[in-house]
Amino acid sequence: MPFTTYHLGPGLMIGLLFLNFIDFPTFLIASVIVDIEPFIILLFNLDYPLHGFFHSFLGGTIVALLLTVVMSKIRRHFYPLMSFFKLEQDVSFKKILVASLSGIYIHILLDFPIYTDIQPFFPLDFNPFYQNTSFPGLLQTIICVWCFMGALIVYIIRLFQYKVKNQEKIQEKKAVVDK
């Protein structure tokens, strides 16, 4: 991807669509966390591939397991933020684990057709999915942008449903009081 933030489009879209099955904040973090690797390599001018070990399924799995442990310890601190955005959800270790693994794997899947330095099946030394095109990453960028726009639509629909549901609860309480 040209920029890590593009990964937030699919992260938001998938996270909102599967809110009952995966932990939303974990999924968002997982969808961008492996790009700490190229950031550090660029920052310190290291002689290492930008998309190295952590952009492989093995390296990504290690990051996902670490993220799962960390998020299971700190997830409760996200409750106020989730409540503010009207995205309350039940949290479990399983949902956090699924969110970590799937967020990181989707990141890797979006990246490996674009970059020659990714070895998705490390320690095997090749990338069978690399696509040498005139516009590398164009399709992935379009997908990510469309996912972001779709996520906005899904979120607006969720807010509308939340508002309707709360109005019904208020009317029910008022009906009980009036009796």
Total number of domains: 1
Give the helix/strand class: mainly alpha
Low-confidence stretches: none
SSE run: HHHHHHH
Helical fraction equals 55-70%
- How would you state the average pLDDT, rounded? 90
> Which of globular, elongated, flat, extended, rod-shaped describes the shape?
elongated
Helix run count: 7
Terminal residue distance: 60 Å
Summarize the structure.
The protein has 179 residues and is an all-alpha fold.
What does this structure look like?
- The protein is mainly alpha-helical.
- It has one domain.
- Helix 1 runs antiparallel to helix 2, helix 1 runs parallel beside helix 7 and helix 2 packs parallel to helix 6.
- 32% of the residues are buried.
Features:
179 residues, mainly alpha, elongated
Mind sketching the topology for me?
Blueprint: H1 8-17, H2 24-33, H3 36-43, H4 57-74, H5 79-84, H6 93-111, H7 138-178
